[in-house]
Amino acid sequence: MEKENNIQINAIGREVPINVNGKILIPYKGVKKHKPEGFKHGSRISTCADFPDDGNKLVVSLKEALIRSELQDGMTISTHHHFRNGDLIANEVFKIASELGIKNLIWFPSASFDCHAELIKYLKDGTIHHIEGSMNGELGRFVSSGKMKGVGVLRSHGGRYQAIQDGEVQIDIAIIAAPTADNFGNANGVSGSSACGLLGFALADSQYSNKVIVVTDNLIPFPCLPWQIQGNYVDYVVKVDKVGIPEKILSGTTQITKSPDRLFLAELTARFCDQAGIIKDGFSFQAGAGGTSLAVGYYFAKIMKDKGIKASFARGGSNKFLVDMLKNNLLEFILDGQTFDLDGVNSMKLNPNHVDTSPFTSYNYHGKGNFAQLLDVVILGATEVDVNFNGNVVTHSDGLLLHGLGGWQNCLFSKCTILPIPLFRDRIPVIKDHVTTICGPGELIDVIITERGIAINPLRLDLIEKIKGSGLPIKTIYQLKEEAERICGIPQKPIFADETVAIVKWVDGTVIDSIKRVIE
Amino acid sequence: MEKENNIQINAIGREVPINVNGKILIPYKGVKKHKPEGFKHGSRISTCADFPDDGNKLVVSLKEALIRSELQDGMTISTHHHFRNGDLIANEVFKIASELGIKNLIWFPSASFDCHAELIKYLKDGTIHHIEGSMNGELGRFVSSGKMKGVGVLRSHGGRYQAIQDGEVQIDIAIIAAPTADNFGNANGVSGSSACGLLGFALADSQYSNKVIVVTDNLIPFPCLPWQIQGNYVDYVVKVDKVGIPEKILSGTTQITKSPDRLFLAELTARFCDQAGIIKDGFSFQAGAGGTSLAVGYYFAKIMKDKGIKASFARGGSNKFLVDMLKNNLLEFILDGQTFDLDGVNSMKLNPNHVDTSPFTSYNYHGKGNFAQLLDVVILGATEVDVNFNGNVVTHSDGLLLHGLGGWQNCLFSKCTILPIPLFRDRIPVIKDHVTTICGPGELIDVIITERGIAINPLRLDLIEKIKGSGLPIKTIYQLKEEAERICGIPQKPIFADETVAIVKWVDGTVIDSIKRVIE
Q: What per-residue confidence (pLDDT) applies to A251?
């Protein structure tokens, strides 16, 4: 059977397809095992002779810009999630494409949010063939039910940069929603009434896409400073009434938890870091987008104040907590990949030590190093982990694809990766024999912290040694799993069809796992 | 004869070789006529797996870094001129190469200065095969005398970016001297005791070279901010005692003239711009590195003060005069490609409206527009012009190659290009029937201003119209030429051999002229 021939077992024991959407894939080989060959993608050479002498690239509408960019069937179209759930442009792009009768587009967003559920109608009517990027919430359910024409491709933020840089994904038209721009195409996210912070997720798109359209609601005279996106990469500029709703940047995953259980988890995590000697003068950390992760930062600050020490840098997602640490001299720099609230936006605009970064600097695994690996500790979430410390962030235990990878995979390369997670959610244990989907290999996940105990990865003898005699509730991962199952029982496994609906790429472009259609 | 078969007449009537140093060349086709095909160069894909986990790329010496970069015979090695005549690194690189017995290197500097005359010994001993970049002073004389093994290739700053981007020049090892860096390779020119301003001339090298070495005398903890050069592109970092002498940035061409004749020229130029309606609120300008050009800025400021107006932006080379205009609110922004003195360095560090640019943003003709074309007026120098308004900046009337192109060609795309030049120098007329070397086509040169009259390019009917009745001493270029010849006589032409010693590239990579060996 062709379908069977298309499947290989990769180095972490998962069945993955080697041909998806007509493209040949490389199965995951292990951490640091895949060595890329060849050369970075080069986009088509442009010439100033083809652009206006006066530098004015303004066209009358997004539709006009898409037509001039020669929008055609089957093209790869990229948009970005700087406004998170307040994005107004992606839906508009596909509305125009649908009206123009364009079919089989590949949507290549840097992430999707609930607001993009509207695109399901364009997946249904054939305007969009498939999505390469996160497929969240309703979009994920749609994919999990097998209704998308093509196979979804999930990549981390760093993997997205890598895929563009290496030419795995060749973007035909990038549409960059920008809170401020000039008519030459220089653009930023720190100014204007729709200010969202930075535009780093669109950096690769600007550098490597064939055509680049900047859409703004705040057109200012040249030069737009800072030029987070450089006009020298931009083909067309469009002025619209509104590019995004910055108030909706603050979505579910970016509010600190109010749950006492999770606050306890966060505090336990901070205590662990303290005992392990991680919280010391000049250390660096990153707390992810989850509510618990955010709370960890709060406890870090408390410990640092008590000790009278200061962190060197924190990687954002920036939020009020990080910004306060910077203001209160607990932190020297925020190296920010994404503003998670308006405090973050304002701080990036005003504080020179709050610096915008991009997936290139922070996360790209096919660079000469990246920032994620320099961190002393990262705090991340997970939907599931397994007894081998493998982690899942994209599917739930019912098999449904509901989340994107974000920077999660990229952050695993830090010096210490900690997942503070509840032992069970809605009476479903979080620790499994096997995770539904492997998003990150266990060898990179160092510590699992639950409300009923802490499991340290046996590979981290150094951490185990440091924690000895600390009084912290250290257990094996098997003990934690059994404890959860004693309380909740062993849940039924979801029933999957053979059909692959999405694949999960590793940071190096290989396929670490696949996601099957859920039979509901 | 093979030599004769290798020569074609290009669109501006000059004999140019079509094969130089074993590479096929395209003869100049005219302004806006050459449309590039194909794709930008992609450098080899790297992986974090090959770089230190802790991001520390420090090696013990420049020699060690060159050896680890696998320095070999025939490689292309790049260095940069941010320290202008105070560069200490380029000579050191070739000293090491010579000691290692390496032969036939191509030196690809962003510019050369008197301090690089020391490299003549490595041109003689076979360490360096030829230079692609400016060949100034003694180096130029060496080339003009036919002693360099290969043929020199002259490119503008923008042409250098274009050549790297398009893959015409593939750099094997880029050595970037940086006044401040961290051990990850992030680097800048604004801090440290050797601060030189910006590192923009090394941008393309960092992006496209196979190996990148950052050499610094001020190693600071990560993160080095701003990261004008991004460590994610860097292979090795080297700490040395001293990377450059910033006091020597201020070289001959960056001091304002004290000559009353040239001050008169500068004032006349400013008056012309005023009469032509160029000096108005929100206008933009660039004054080149020459002493007269710098003085023009002084007179611009005077007129603006009188009118109570303010310029939008000036393109640097920045210097005390531009910085004072910024401070005195006569100027909104300096978009700076190169600091010409220490006032410029300090201002770039401290004033957020003094912004570093690069040949990519400012000058690259194979981009989607560039900044040079946006300028209302540029003031440039020239060694010669001819009756067709063609300009020369690289050779003197004695045929000797003595200067580089700098950003001169790139600036010609401004809305008005003015050359204020003395009618004669050392009793040699500056206006010729034919320039010794065509560096820029006359159709892009709008106005020649001499102490004895102003010639407006007949193509600029609009300017001729605006100046009518102004009382300015408007003459034809022929009148100016005759006047000079009446005073000085017609000088003897230099005698050239058949042999091509260097070629001059146009901004699009085509060959606009060639330079022959001078028979002395």
A: 53
Angle between helix B342-350 and B320-327 (nearest 10): 40
* CB nearest to A335's CB, from B36, B40, B223: B223
Tell which of A68, A168, A232 to mutate to test the B interface (max B CBs under 10 Å).
A232
Side-chain-side CA neighbours of A273 within 13 Å: the count stands at 32
Helix (H, G, I), strand (E, B) or coil at B134: coil
What is the pLDDT at residue B477?
98
Phi, psi of B49 (to 5 degrees): -60, -25
- B405: tokens are 């192109």
A-B Cβ pairs (cutoff 8 Å, strict): 183
Cα first-last separation, chain B: 25
Contact A39, A181 (CB under 8 A): no
* Nearest alpha-carbon partner for A383 in A435, A316, A418, A326: A435
CA distance A44 to chain B (A): 4
**A40: which chain B residues are within 8 Å (Cβ-Cβ)?**
42-45
Q: Are B417 and B447 in contact (CB under 8 A)?
A: yes
Distance between CA atoms of B190 and B67, rounded to whole angstroms? 29
**pLDDT (0 to 100) of residue A4:** 52
Q: Report how far apart the first and last C-alpha atoms of chain A are (Å, whole number).
A: 25
For A166-206, the pLDDT digits (tens) are: 999 999 999 999 999 999 999 999 999 999 999 999 999 99
Q: Which chain B residues have a beta carbon less than 8 Å from that of A353?
A: 225
- CB-CB: which of A38, A53, A369 is closest to B45? A38
**Which residues are within 8 A (CB) of B259 and not within 5 positions of it... i.e. 6 or more apart?**
B291
pLDDT tens, position by position, B428-452: 999 999 999 999 999 999 999 999 9
Residue-averaged pLDDT of chain B: 95
CA–CA gap between residue B208 and residue A470 (Å, rounded): 50
Contacts 24+ apart (CB under 8 A), A487-491: A487/A423, A487/A424, A487/A427, A488/A424, A488/A427, A488/A428, A488/A429, A490/A429, A491/A397, A491/A428, A491/A429
pLDDT band at B2 (very low <50, low <70, confident <90, very high): very low
Contact criterion met (CB below 8 Å) for B167 and A40:
no
* Pairwise CA distance, residues B449 & A457, whole Å: 77
> Is residue B166 within 8 Å of B70, Cβ to Cβ?
no
Residues for chain A: how many in total? 520
| Cα-Cα-Cα-Cα dihedral sign, residues B347, B350, B354, B356 | positive
* Mean pLDDT for the stretch of residues B257-272: 91
For B409, the token pair is 């060609």
Helix, strand, coil share of chain B (percent; to 5): 30, 25, 45
Instruction: Decide if A225 and B333 are in contact by the 8 Å CB cutoff.
Output: yes
Quickly count: other Cβ atoms within 10 Å of residue B248's Cβ. Answer: 17
Q: Which helix (H) or strand (E) holds B237?
A: strand B236-239
pTM over 0.95: yes
Q: Do A38 and B51 count as a contact with CB atoms less than 8 A apart?
A: no
The confidence score (pLDDT) of residue B314 equals 96
Per the structure block, which two tokens stand in for B119?
């490299």
Residue-level pLDDT at A228: 97
| Residue bearing tokens 């009353």 | B260
Above 60 in pLDDT, residue A383? yes
Chain A environment of B282 (Cβ under 8 Å) = 221
- Cβ burial of B289 (10 Å; 0-12, 13-18, 19+) is buried
